Amino acid sequence: MAPGATHPGQLALLALLLPLLGALLPGLGGAEISMWPLNTIIPKGGSMKVNCSVACDGNITSFGLETHWHKTEVDHRDKWKIFELSNVENDGTLLCHAVCQGNQTQVQGNLTVYWFPEYVKLANLSWQREGQHFNLSCQVSGGAPRTNLSAVLFRGEEELFRQSVGMEEPANVTFRMLASRKDHGANFSCRTELNLQPQGLELFWNSSAPLKLQTYVLPATHPHLATPELVEVGTPVSVNCSLDGLFPASEATVHLARGDHRPPLTITHNGDSLLAKTWINGTEKEQGTQYLVCEIMLADEKVVTKKNVTFYSFPPPNLTLSEPEVSEGTTVSIECQAHGEAVVTLNEVPAETPSQRAQLKLNVSAEDHGRSFSCSAALTVAGHVLYKNQTQVLSVLYGPRLDERDCPGNWTWPEGSHQTLTCQARGNPTPKLICRREGDGALLPTGDLGPVKREITGTYQCQATSSRGVATRVVVVNVIHNQNNMVIIIPVAAVAILGSVGVAAYIYNYQRKIQKYELQKAQENAAMKLSTPASPP
């Protein structure tokens, strides 16, 4: 049985009792009319029975029910009638009326129709910037009575706001919210509640499909685009684009493009930071300045950074030697040649007006073996001067060299001292060196000798041999030991003694000569005095 419907047996019983009550109760004399149920609520499109009863002592000339709904009289007696209302679509009033002994009497009742909303829908949730207010709109179509209908906003299972649904059709219930980072990804839904508990019925509800809210933070700063200003064609270079303070970083999209070319990206996230990496390369046809653009988008916003990148071609210079390996005394030509608009310089060539070619002629000697020649090319690109170098090493063929610089001819050390003996030969090709001692043919020890022993004393014949000749040298090694010290000390002492004796004899003879000279001089003076005549008195 639908809510508000009345059983026919109840109506019939009530129809029999009402006239009796009218006769028994005081004040009911004359004509009285009643309706049951007087005020009721039924579902939309439903049916119900209404009993109209009259208490009249005289003749009833008119008796019925007035309503705009479709009605059917299903039962009656002299003083009561039962009507059935069907397909009730909206609220309205009922009027039971009668004319008793020429006097009209009537009673009015109210009929309320209830029905559930046809749909409840939460409007599409767009991205919301953190810290800004926005509206959540709950759309409700249908449902009555509206005075008993509410819209409730939920975040997950948590009730946030509650608001009455207005009388508009359809109704649009708006909730004001502040976008918060914690709400990102949360499910929001709108629920309608039709509360008929005061009418003796239930609380009926219906919920919309849940929608996810997306909040975001996009800083006003531009992305940091790390790229070289100059890129040589054919040489891949790394490019990075990064942005901090981005939320949610994983939801952002990145476009990193060079002109119409968008290379594949590797994107990583770390908290509120985003880093996009790629490699760019250019071809000969792409030389010149191009835009490199990094664009980071989140929600309906984007931040952009642009930089100029210049692609250039700069082959290294050509450095050639007329002969990379020559014999000493040969003249060699060294030439340095640049490509394109580059200019070159060749080491040891006096700087003149920059040109694309530099040359040097050299009559080589043994000292030029292993000599390095460097050719440097310079190219100006977008205000920057770039350099590239080429190096060649000259090989000079010459015979063995065995001289004092590389192999000293005389070594004298005290026995037991720690010494190092070096003896090596120069030449190209590298000569083979053998040093043997005269007499027994023992090899000359070289390198770290440790404590020097007297056994290495001797004269060694050294010979350096290669395909370009032979060089020889005599090396003498002397080791001073105790016996040799005495041999040296005795002659030195003897020489010292003899020298002292000689000095003493020289001094003695010198003094004798002086004394002899003075005596002789005195004798001559005396003789002169004797031979001189005396002066007259």
TrEMBL record:
One of its GO terms (molecular function) is integrin binding. The keyword Repeat applies. InterPro entries: ICAM, ICAM1_3_5_D2, ICAM_N, ICAM_VCAM, ICAM_VCAM_N, Ig-like_dom, Ig-like_dom_sf, Ig-like_fold. Keywords: Cell adhesion, Disulfide bond, Glycoprotein, Immunoglobulin domain, Membrane, Repeat, Signal, Transmembrane, Transmembrane helix, Ubl conjugation. GO terms for biological process: cell adhesion; cell adhesion mediated by integrin; cellular response to amyloid-beta; cellular response to glucose stimulus; cellular response to leukemia inhibitory factor; establishment of endothelial barrier; leukocyte cell-cell adhesion; membrane to membrane docking. It is a single-pass type I membrane protein. GO terms for cellular component: external side of plasma membrane; extracellular exosome; immunological synapse; membrane raft; plasma membrane. Residues 117-193, 400-478 form the Ig-like domain. It comes from the Eukaryota. It is found in: Membrane. The chain crosses the membrane at residues 486-508. Its main location: membrane. Residues 1-30 form the signal peptide. Homodimer. Interacts with MUC1 and promotes cell aggregation in epithelial cells. Interacts with ARHGEF26/SGEF. Interacts (on T cell side) with CD81, CD247 and CD9 at immunological synapses between antigen-presenting cells and T cells. Belongs to the immunoglobulin superfamily. ICAM family. ICAM proteins are ligands for the leukocyte adhesion protein LFA-1 (integrin alpha-L/beta-2). During leukocyte trans-endothelial migration, ICAM1 engagement promotes the assembly of endothelial apical cups through ARHGEF26/SGEF and RHOG activation. This is Intercellular adhesion molecule 1. It comes from Sus scrofa (Pig). The lineage of its organism: Eukaryota, Metazoa, Chordata, Craniata, Vertebrata.
